[in-house]
Amino acid sequence: MRAYQRKLDIKNGCVDLSHGSGGRAMAQLISGLFHEAFGNEWLARGNDQSAFDVGDGRMVMTTDGYVVSPLFFPGGDIGSLAVHGTVNDIAMAGARPLYLSASFIIEEGFRFCDLKTIAESMGEAARVAGVHIITGDTKVVERGKADGLFISTAGVGVVPDGLDLSAENARVGDRVLISGTLGDHGVAIMSKRQNLTFETEIVSDSAPLNDLVAEMVEAGGRGIRLMRDPTRGGLAATLNEIAHQSGLGFHLIEEQIPVKPGVAAACELLGLDPLHVANEGKLVAIVAPDVAGAVLAAMRGHRLGRDAADIGEAVADDHHFVQMATSFGGGRIVDWLSGEQLPRIC
Amino acid sequence: MKYADEFRDKAIALGLAKTIEAETDPGRPYRFMEFCGGHTHAISRYGLEDLLPKNVRMIHGPGCPVCVLPAGRIDMAIRLAERPEVILCVYGDLMRVPGSQGASLLKAKARGADIRMVYSTIDAVRIAEENAGREIVFFAIGFETTTPPTAVMIRLAEKKQLENFSVFCNHVLTPPAMQNILESPDIRKIGRIEIDGFVGPAHVSTIIGTAPYEFFAEEFGKPVVIAGFEPLDMMQAILMLVRQVNENRHEVENQYSRAVTRDGNLRAKEEVSDIFELRDQFEWRGLGQVPYSGLKLKRTYAKYDAEVRFGMSELRVDDNPACECGAILRGVKKPVDCKLFGTVCTPETPMGSCMVSSEGACAAHWTYGRFRDHQQRRAS
């Protein structure tokens, strides 16, 4: 049965208030655009929710909102980011991500063709990550009430038995491993901001890390104390957070921290520190020294961990400082970023 | 990164550190002030202190234009931005600078003022062209380095016959502030200033040249070495200062000869003197009123002067009485000597000028160097 008279005019059409009003137009948008892009058995049943089976192990759940500007950037778009970000938050528990929900808040006038590109990019990102988008929601707001499109995704996954990654597991002497170069995402976004356009080859590192994590867990098992993805606030924020939660400090070696020359140059130009710049496809792992070598080798053997590096160690420090031996030969603190570097980076 | 990494070479740095160590007299202190925030940032960012002998101390001067902007000027800008017809264009690092009673441009923007962050003066001109029905005001701030771009912008506005464009001028000058550090009446309150030499500005000197410091070196008997902002520039400049002190010389020397000449950028100086003139005095947060240290637009350009155009009245706000910025900026006290440091005054909630931007003495110490306080305490 076809409930709609006319096909969505993807090429020239745009979202209007009727697409969020619960009527026929909304149903057509959902089935014609989202179901098409996400295509799976759960959505095909057309229920307001989806039931699914989970295997053994504890479940993890996470949620995240995506308001990145611009919506399309070198290396990705808000759609792929909304999948990767949530998949990675689940993966950082050592878990296997399974299912996602996706909620869209769309500004009236948003072009169908852009929405389709974004939905297809989400669908593709989900397929690559091995997760399914099994439930969702669409709302349309008046012009001026949202900046084009906001997406919110939630996700569930399952942690293998015996694995419990958490900051309080960290111990003095643990190694700090990073999966690759820092600051790629932030610089890629900044290069496309209005008023700030500069030429760079840098593309966002936005990527799903669950496969890399699975290999690390295989190699390091319970020797992996915890993992985090250094998104907003960069590596500096993540390590300061871990230092406070674990009651330890960190000593880093600047020369060991991988940063692409293009990112270093852009940061130089803009007066930023690559350690404060956001990543969307990198992780930092605190790992027991006896398995650090094996975990690092596993990371380097994976496509997303080729530039992985051992950048320092956890130390006893009542002040929970993250300190760094600079490449110049001095020492300094790597502090949280004060204030805001750039809004709406993810 | 070409042309940057060469000036950050560890092996050369360690070599220079050895020479400095060998040439300093362990029996006397060497107290050098780096005037510029850019230098302060480099010292902290690269951990330069760890490479210097214990008796060489760097004093972080007031050369951060954001830091020294008084709260009253921020309040004036907020009032201006609250006018419905005004779009205020500012550089991003001004957004968090505290005005009186916790006000800031960031908070004013959140309450609805139309404040836009720009990255160059040209952006402000473009915004003026795109918004014919509104009044566009550019919040001009900075030392001699950023004044020429403001001058170019005013010329551009004139050429394009923009009727909706003006400048809130807060440009300040380096030499009068350096002089003020050594001879302000406040010194009677603060105590003896003990500075053995100055690391002179990098970018500022590319514009004004080295000549303006000659009077200063002669009059006050203090060596001045103009230095670039890279860490090796700093190390070399410190060595040059050590040598001047040892040899009892007080000259202006130019370490940054790859960018700075004796006369500076004549074209830029000409543009600036065509459009701007000296104010009798200008307030610096932390230093107070400094004679002949600020610029305003000449009367011929009054239509581009926001203070004239909007009849803005001067607002004065006293610094927190417990704030030690004046003494810290002159090297009489260290950040940790201030009761407010790290307690109520942090980079998130700055009370005084030194905490406002990462180039300020207190913010640099808090952000990059505070681990040394605990090391020292443990050692003693």
Structure, explained:
The complex is a heterodimer of chains A (about 350) and B (about 375). Chain A has about 350 residues and is of the alpha+beta class. Chain A has helices at about 25-40, 40-45, 80-90, 110-130, 185-190, 210-220, 235-245, 260-270, 290-300; strands at about 60-65, 70-75, 75, 95-105, 130-140, 150-160, 175-180, 225-230, 250-255, 285, 310-315, 320-325, 330-335. Chain A is globular and about 70 Å long. The model of chain A has no long low-confidence stretch (mean pLDDT about 95). Chain B has helices at about 10-25, 35-45, 65-70, 70-80, 105-110, 120-130, 145-160, 175-185, 185-190, 205-210, 210-220, 230-245, 265-275, 305-310, 325-330, 360-370, 370-380, and strands at about 30-35, 55-65, 85-90, 115-120, 135-140, 165-170, 195-200, 225, 250-255, 275-280, 280-285, 290, 295. In chain B, the strands form four sheets. In chain B, strands 2-1-7-8-9 form a five-stranded parallel β-sheet, sandwiched between helices. In chain B, strands 4-3-5-6 form a four-stranded parallel β-sheet, sandwiched between helices. Chain B is globular, with a radius of gyration of 21 Å. The two termini of chain B are about 40 Å apart.
Structural class category of chain B: alpha/beta
Taking pLDDT < 50 over at least 5 consecutive residues as the criterion, the unreliable ranges of chain A are none
Task: Please report the total strand number of chain B as a whole number.
Answer: 13
Interface with most residues: A-B, 22 and 33 residues
- Strand order in the sheet with the most strands of chain B: 2-1-7-8-9
How are the strands of the biggest sheet of chain A laid out side by side?
8-10-7-11-9-12-13
Share in β-strands of chain B: 15-25%
Distance between the termini of chain B: 41 Å
What's the total helix number of chain B?
17
